[in-house]
User: Fold these one by one.
Assistant:
Number 1:
Amino acid sequence: MEVGLLYSRIRPDEKLLLTELRERGHEVHKVDVRQATFGLDAPPEPLGECDVVLDRCMATSRSRYASRFVEHYDLPVVNSPETAKVCSDKVETTLALSEAGVPTPETTVAFTTESALEAIESFGYPCVLKPVVGSWGRLMAKLESRSAAEAVLEHKETLGHYEHSVFYVQQFVDKPGRDLRVLTVDGEPVAAMSRSSDHWLTNAAAGADTESFDLPAEVEQLAREASAAVGGGLLGVDLMELDGDGADDEYTVHEVNHTVEFKALNAAVDMDVAATVVDWLEAKVAAEEAGNEATPAEVQP
Amino acid sequence: MTAANCVTCGDSVALPEDVEVGEIVDCGSCGTELEVLGVDPAELAEAPELAEDWGE
């Protein structure tokens, strides 16, 4: 198959995918979205020839618009722009999870520092203030006092970008020193790891220790439901255990990542994550081709 | 093994055989993050600064 890969940086994750795709004889067309332009009539060359386009843009803004254009050109794109839109914005993610009945941390959104402070005081301390767009644990604040909250809110207001005045306040989950990352393909969990740290942030990008994690059936089901809630595709579903000692059966989904990085997962688990992703892509393209070859009569119920 | 000069300190930076355009390498001498702009011939540039909306 011919695969388009939208990127602005080739991370180890993209390199794993590129290697796997090429070793299987697939032709990969890398498109640097910093150089490409996206008009209304035709895709940037050579995307038009591709059987599927992988959105691997590291910048959320580029990911959202570029994937939307690829869909506009009627080309299959992973992930869909709808999924990108939901996953790239924490407010959208929280609402989608809540609407689907997927447990997610209690969250309040406010639009002024005054109302945000009221929301923070309602949660009590500690609670968490997150940027609505962002990743790798950056600009996350665990608020332990009113004076700290006032300072962080003032800083956010001063940062300038309007998104920093969308105050996303969330309950602090006293997790057992770790959270869980589940990689899903169209809802099916394929690999999982725990990410442990003494710090309250347990992102692998922030240096957390990663370890393969055997998924309880309940977590598998939550990962499926979280994937469905945001539109499916190739996703990283992040969950926390609720009771703080890791022995409870209750979980909450706090994030779903749509340009999921899997380098750390690949190193933690006893499987080839890139190969599994490419297996899924091949099946997806084959199904798409089979659907296109079917006559209208064949696809009618 | 391919090599190119660091755009900051000028020292030679060895690139892996399977290096990709768009990949980031570190200069072993000065630590600058470098983006691979070309592989044949090898060409490096200072990598872009981290932007707020980067991530997964």
Number 2:
Amino acid sequence: MPQPIITVTDLSFRYPGADQDSLRNVNLTIEAGDFVTVIGGNGSAKTTLCKTFNGLIPHYWHGEFAGSVHVAGVDTWDSSVTELSAHVGYVYQDFHNQLVRPTVRDEVAFGPVNYGLDDHEERTSSALETLGITELAQRFVWQLSGGQAHLTALASVLAQRPTVLIVDEPVAELDPERAAVIYERLATLNRELGITIITIEHHMEFVARYAKSVILMADGTPAWHLPIEEAITRTGELEAHGIPAPQSINAVKALGISATPRTTEDAVAAIRASGKKPSVHWSGIAHLATQEPNRDVVARAVNVTHGYKSVSGETHMVLNNVNVDLHDGDRVALVGGNGAGKSTLMKLLAGIIVPREGTVWLGETNSRSKASPHLAEHAAYLYQHPELMLLKGSVAEDVALFPKDRKHPDTDALVAHILDRVRLTDFADRDGRTLSGGQQRRATLAIGLAMRPTVLLLDEPTSSLDVSSRDDVTHMLADLAGSIRCTVVATHDMQLVAEWANRVIVLSEGGIIADCHPRELFGSPQVLERAHLTAPEIVRIGNALGVAPVPLSVAELAAAYHGDGPPPVPTATAQTSALGV
Amino acid sequence: MTSTYERRGELRGTMDENLELNTSQKLMIFVLSMSLFGLSNVILEIIPDVSIGPVDISVAYFVFVPLVMVALFSPFWAALGAPIGEVIFTDLLMGDFSGLAEIEGIIQMFLALYIAGTLMRNPRSKAQIWIGAITVVVIDKFLSAAVDLSKVWIGVEDAEFVEGLPQSILLLEGIGFGVDIIISGILFGAIPAMWLIPALYGKIEPLLGMRPRQPGDKVNGGAQSVWFVVSAVFLSIAAFFFAFLEAWDVEVGVIDSDLREQYGDTFLLVSVAGIIVLLTLVWLISRRTQRRSASPSKD
Amino acid sequence: MRKHHDVLSVEWVKLELIRTAYATRGGLFSTMDPRMVVMWYLVLAIVPWFTHNLTVLAGLFVLGCISVGLARVGPLLLGLFVFGLIVETFYVFIAAWLFGGDTQTVIALVELTLKLGAVSLASMAAFVSLDPEKLSDAMLAFRMPQMITFGVSYGYRMLPILIEQFATVFEGYRLRSAPVENKGFLGWRMITQWCRLTVLSFYPIFLNTAKSVRTTVESLEARGFTYAAVDGRGRQIRLAYLRLTAKDWAVMAVTLALIAGVFWFGAQFPLYR
């Protein structure tokens, strides 16, 4: 019989200055050796709950604290953060900020050295080894990639030998491939060292694959805490809380098979076992690019080469002799691993930077000939992190900044119209920073729309969003066609690529290795592998089952199997008419 | 569901009504102040300095950055963080550390910011923001002038008898002083702070889990002993300055009366008046804090 | 025509940091115990203030120059430093001359310059050889407050991130503001806009930094930062690697002997104003 490691009894908590409780009568037991995932929509107090486990609440955040939390038999109220840190390790969502020492080894040794532990060296080495980052020990923290930095943060809490490890949304700041590496390591820690793992997660794909039990948070309290096998069958309830089931489950369900596969492979096996076969009438043709070839070019890069001076002094080339034309009506997804040059290409196409060699044309203008603020009227670039775009005290002011400064005659009407379009009218006077993740993305989108550009370029518009906010942003992007002639999105989100884009450009090793329709890309495993891309689950299922052309959505898979007429039109092509900004 | 919600657990901790900062809050203020002032100095480092002859007309520092910190948070920790951030970010990390001279800088800036912060009781009062910004530059530059002068005084034998030396040092310091008040104190001090402090008031404090400073709050973060240290350091430096002026005063009397002397006299009068005003302020404030701490509201 | 620039970017700051971090110049002082280097500096920084003898001061100045050479500071840097010193002195002299100064004044200025120069040379030799981490360990050893030593490593770590944030915010502000059409005399309109945007950019930077500082301090707390301030063991472990070797003592002894020599020489051939 497993022992409970964390027991929460009638816990309520209110932040200082808040007008209602964030946590409400939480009762919860987490058993030693469990791999728990906490899910729930944005703002359901998942992070707040986890901060009560290591004593940050109430010892660091002094609010109204009622009830009790026991960790390894210790009442957190009577304990201290210091004492609890020996039991509970915490890796933050913004883990970059928890790294405080210059080198990786120093960082990992920081905790044990502070506590004056005699075996600090051994702890440091074993933490590095367990996570397979011994070779990074002498590196400077700022030289690390996102994935390496996350592993370093993990190692630094692991060096304190906790029995419970909390990881807050590893997928938020990492691409899915690197997040999968983190999850694999966590699973190993859980299996081999018996460490209780608690993660906060939005992506059911990871939950289904790695978790042993699931806590669904809603309105500051757990709706339920169930073993994974049972949790994933509650698709309706999850959907109601803004957490759609993973595609593997939806795919099986859509084909009328009663199974709850936890992985892609399980789903494929279940469909195979059902004996169903794709219809011979499936063509998927309705979705292939059917655009006329001679459309206007709105932006063009000719023989562009660009790079940065690296720490060693030589110039590191990010893009090498790249040529690309962007046309009217393109919905381009720019994909490729971290460091493949996506952001650089976007900034070049927006005229924010100019290439070392080659030329970028924005319409008829050479980007070298005008200052970037002029070019911003043609091409608008939206940064990945909304907090870097929210420069003013309110959303309305932020949206108005561009048109007002350039003396647009009808700024007020324009701003009102755009806010209405992104459904933020009610939040117009709020500070953008106080909005939820999804609302912040919509606010940045509004900023871009207010610039009324010909080309809109967005960097990772769906990262760190829960699934329903993500879908929201995807729909909004699809709606842009009426006002923006060409939209470019740099992304790791392959589901966005599959559902939204009509053209995908794959960057790898400084060049374009594919420029085609997403369906074509997802049908070529060798390109995907070369660019370190993982296709959406549904595509992997389709490929494994030999469905060709490969389905890009669950609906398409269903259509391929039922063969009754053309598949439903995806949202991206459904256009509304009220778009004339 | 929301309407029927009622706490079941026994309430164990309530909102912190007392204003004593805990260690982590002090640390947050310190680190924030350090990072921001450090950053602002690195940015200044990037801009080339403009100087006309011996007179540097570049921006000495972005006074508004630490001024916002001391106005919105506990002045003690904010004032301590800022100069340390400057030394660490621009001197140590950029390989330009100069040993003992840095300590002078830290003490000057700390005193300047701390005194300005304690003077600003109401973060939303424009007048107090102006007073604060000017105070920072005046005290900082005054102390640095005092240190420079004392270096000459100690460094050169009978400096006061060297023809023209004290006057020229004073002249150069004086011009630099005026330029800094206008550029650092007003253009990059009071004016930006007048906009930034109200803009951030009530927004930034909750991010650190604190309550916004209210006009009547007692200045916390530093015990009364801090005031003792502050006054002692300040007085000793002031005494040094006085001593220098005294020595020089003899010299002034000997010079023929002309424009130079008038200039010197005015400067002398202004300096002495300034120091007296400052000392009185320090005395008044320390008395007020003491009385407050002695009042029965605090046990 | 716009061109690509490598300076003023995040990469540039990282480059600068690494340059200081590795302190690859080598040289005598970089192989010494940082505590001894600091002591050595203190000796050379204080001694010049105890004499008005120009001979002694010149000797100390030469000693400073030799140390800088031993620290492998390039002749260019040294030359620039000396040049700066001369220019500064020249300005003061011009001002003094306006007030009726004479050769006496010049000599007094030479004395002051030699003194300040000798101190600066010592600090240059010492601190160019110590990377920030070593220096902070030395400060920890001298029982300076833990906050300062923490500040060093934290600044080290955060500076690139802060610069990147600032650069992004500033760039975004510039793109979203109206371009300056007429640059004005000496480009003053450009400069004004630049200053305005710099100040405005601090609003989001304040809020964003406050948010990230919260995470940092929470994590510090959980990893025993305040615990270490009370409990001395952490400090001992951090400083365990520091060893005073024969070389350290030898350098100190030689320096003291040389200083004594300089004073003796100065007493033989005194030169006063």
Number 3:
Amino acid sequence: MTFDILVMQIFSGFSLFSVLVLMALGLTIVFGLMGVINMAHGELMAMGSYMTYVTSVVFQRYFPDHMGWYFIIGIGVAFVVTFAFGFLLERCFIRFMYKRPLDTLLATWGLSLVLQQLFRQVFGPKEVTVPTVQWLQGAWKISEGLELPLNRIFIIGLTLVIAAAVFLFLYRSRWGLRIRAVTQNRAMAGAAGINTARVDAVTFALGCGLAGIAGSSFTMLASTGPVSGQQYLVDTFIVVVFGGVESLLGTFLSAFAIGQTQISLEYLTTGSMAKAITLLVVIVLLFLRPNGLFAAKVRR
Amino acid sequence: MHNEKRRLIKHALLLGAFSLLPFSLVSQAQADSVKVGIVHSLTGTMAMSEASVVDAEKLAIEQINASGGVLGKTIEPIVEDGASDWPTFAEKARKLLENDHVAATFGAYTSASRKAVLPVFERNKGLLYYPTFYEGLEKSPAIIYTGAEASQQTLAAVTWLMANKGKSVYLVGSDYIWPRTTNKLARASVTKQGGSIVGEDYLPLGNIEFSSVINKIKAAKPDIVLSTIVGGSNVAFYKQLKAAGIDSSNQTLMALAVTEEEVTGIGAENLTGFLTCMSYFQSLKNPINEKFVAAFKARYGDKRVVGDPMAAAYTAVYLWKKAVEKAGTFDVPAVIAASSELVLDAPEGEIKVHKDNHHLWKRARIGTINAQGQVDVIYESAPIEPNPFPKL
């Protein structure tokens, strides 16, 4: 392996890390707060991808001169729409199923099927083409043989920005304070005057919004079709479970570990083998630490 | 009590609404009609490839009906959804054969779905027309294969590549039966022609992370990349290749599972200049193809494109019609016997059913994908005799 390839491999590891973080962030927050396992998380990402697609179509038709901006706007649209959808979903559907984790599992899985068919009806069974904006096409050529794809650099940057924003929101804002209070002790927080129902709705919506952003940025890497969400779901769950389901830091570290491991193994073996070995390692580690890398230490 | 009643009424209404569904799909049987089955995935992962194959089959049936039907009978298609699930395919096939007593069935797309329905058709003495290019190594008395088998696609492509593009090949594919078998044949053929395989990589179906594979390709610097990646992964693969700075200007790549249909999902800008090998391309210039494409666009919209399996499925319906007319009956054994050495002018040009192996004599065509998402043909073979069990 030459130096160039080594650098590109490490970069790929970072890129996969950022992709995994984007996928898992929303799910971690929702699961940590409400104990809801949202099987429709993948479809919410697909919804974000489709919103980006819709934005691109609108720009192509009405503002063809400003195509370069569509992607930034698209990410915003994806966030707003999935956030709003998540809010409605929590109010009309999820909140009736708290404290029934198995039922939520089934219900959200059913929801994912409904959403898939909805995408199929609205956008057709085939994948749609989401154009990559001009300034994110191609690679940053550092030297002959050492090239870093611009879209991956963008996704790494986006992940850092989103992660920082989520951190500030959770640890430096009043809403964050409420969310953390409810996460730690729902009854006590309620007694102290926090409207836990609203905190639930906002958190769930936030989780969905983050899924939307993830889906939006993945249009540059992968396909946008009715079943695209399924491609992400398994990886997302592995990251969340491996990291310790309630810990943001755990999610980061597990995404990093899985990302680098998988990328290195893919280089040394084949893609299928790498995935199998990664899963095996995760299973063994979960066997040793059943609550994941960073289990929250709370009294139950 | 009141509530109970209301719920009952609601349920009854729902039930009523559901029971109406099948009737909207199946029109009333007529005495002067003949039933044929169509079984493809209309939901699930494979719907994105199979839904348009159904469109092509329905178009052929409508055209035949408009021009007087077969043996004076109108064709009545019964469409079943295999739902991208192989046991469901088998179940629907059984329903078509045992309940509907269809004269022939057009269906299955993936090799897995074909393997699932094969015993059903053999046991019930049914007849299935299978439209997809596939890995070969199969010959069933109940199936007529209208797609290319490996020697008409993979081996033809490899031979051309060895002669024109270089000797070192990197194989990359999705991890299931078609790519694995195809690559096994490709490897044997490459080695035999003095070439070498410098890498072979498989990724799980639905995989979206290709950066390591791309780095491996960069490290191996092969003359040729031969891709058997399918489905949604395709989109990810070509987008990431382009982003990593690999395009047709610095790498020869041949895709064996990219038709015009896939190009619309991947985006032509990510594929421009790459090669593909099929029996049929929408851009073929012959009167029958031009008529077919125009009819398809008129029926389903101007933006729709036609790919190889769709043309093969369309051909299958006409092939069945011709065999029935030659046999003078809808009786399956007679139709199969009449199919032998049957010649038909199809959108891909003249095809001929092999005298005993149920595959078609087909041409292999190689083309480059252009910026409009169409394919410019650069090589066309003579008709190749189908040989589903090639000796290598």
Number 4:
Amino acid sequence: MRLIRTACCIALTLPLFAHSAPAHVHGVAKMDLAVDGNKLTLSMEMPLDNLVGFEHLPKTDKQKAALAEAMASLKNAADLFVPTVAAGCKVDTVDVGDPFPGGKAKADGHADVDADYVFRCAQPAALKGLETKLFKRFGRLHRVDVQRATAAGQGAATLTPEQPGMNW
Amino acid sequence: MMAMLKLAAHSAWARRLTLGVTLFSIAISTAMLLSVERIRLNARQSFTQSVSGVDLVVGARTGGVQLMLYSVFHVGQATNNIEWTSFAALAGHPAVAWAIPLSLGDSHRGFAVLGTSAEYFPRFRYGDGRWLKFSDGKAFSRVFEAVIGSEVAARLNYRVGDSITLTHGFGNQALTEHADKPFAIVGILEATGTAVDRTVHISLEAMTALHLDWVAGAPVPGLSIPQNYVEKFDLRPKEITAALIGLKSRADVFRMQRFVNEFRGEPLLAVMPGVALDELWQTIGMVERALFAVSALVIVVGLCGLVSTLLAGLNERRRELAILRALGAGPGDVFMMLAIEGVLVTTAGAMLGVAVLYAATHLAAGWLLAQLGVVIAAQWLSPAEFGLLSLVVLTGLLASLVPGWRAWRMSLADGLTPRV
């Protein structure tokens, strides 16, 4: 009994020593939102599972097509994010990372997708919120945890299919 | 109408005991509803006003909320410290505009002692970006000098020039007193309404100096380094509790956060204060709503009491109402009289409730500030509170329609025919 307890204690402390990997929770995406001057930056990070339902290298033609389609729609920023219309924000750059860098899967069997978007806004003072259509496009995504830093200060928000928008 | 009002008032006065009790219960429930609302708002404000202009708070890896609680609000303790070398590496990062080290753990008569750099005073901001100001004296410049917050000064009656000793940890034992190394108070800060008011600030070097002749959390027997020799030792701190970081560009905050969280030297955590506070409120939000629901229910119970008192009173008042009818009052007048009575009791109850609220906040303000760090501002009723009050009175009006309707239905003959 005591041995088990000791083993558990050691097991619990192990993650403290290892260099921690970013959390990988299926159904959840992380988003960092920054507004600086006229620039609106969105950085997303999520498990590939949210987009296509698998995290291994695509094997069948169907899986390949699904992956290609998901990556393409992830690149279509104007369809995924709607900043306050009055701010007049236009997509500037989009950078979607390859879930399988070098064509190889990671050793732990998980795959993540990073996506960075930059918008330029004509009226940054009018930029007061953002709505996302990610949930409509990706049915396996259930929650986006947002951290934001804007001129109005910092804040946190949780976006869900029922509440896909936030204001600051 | 005037006559009806007068009659209702006189009639109510005749039944002042039962109505008084009802009025009291409405007053208590109103006071409770308003105070829950007020504490909720003030607590939120106290927390969000506590720190401003800080982009990141860095500490040992733990929960974001916990890190905020101990580093900014001085509530609870750190599980681990961070190495000075890590702090130096972060402070030297090209994206960092300034970095202030914080070292906690000692106390002075229940007030937290914060070891920091002199840069803390011109850098720290609170509220909507307000700076710290000295009401007396100046920042510390030498080792055994201390700057105290306004509340420390007020409660312990300290002035610039006074001498104080610090306690190791938060105990009260004489053994852990740093009695051999007293500090001179050189500055008193103006009131901020934040944790700063309840803090004794000393330099990091002083923090090290205090513990020079200590090993493993206790003074070494027989070893005592006199105060005037202390400065010959290397007083550079080896570890600190947390750090406040300001960045050159706001947009760098996420990159810097990632840099800290993946720091090579040791496990560190960087939280954005605004994000951690929002998360804290998302957690507390449930409790808030529960408290609010309970006080709303208390109001409902109070109003049910009102209705039942009025209904029960109808039986006693058969004769009174019948005489009124006989004197020419229509059923509508009787209905009005009952409704007016209900509204009068609710309104008076709500007003008494506001009085109770003011008395209670006046009495409890000091305790709330000392125990929870929540500043309850003595303020006039806010529009939202007025809204709540009118809702209470409106519900009271609706509730008193029930006995009014009963009285309306009672026939003229009802109260005049003696029943055996």
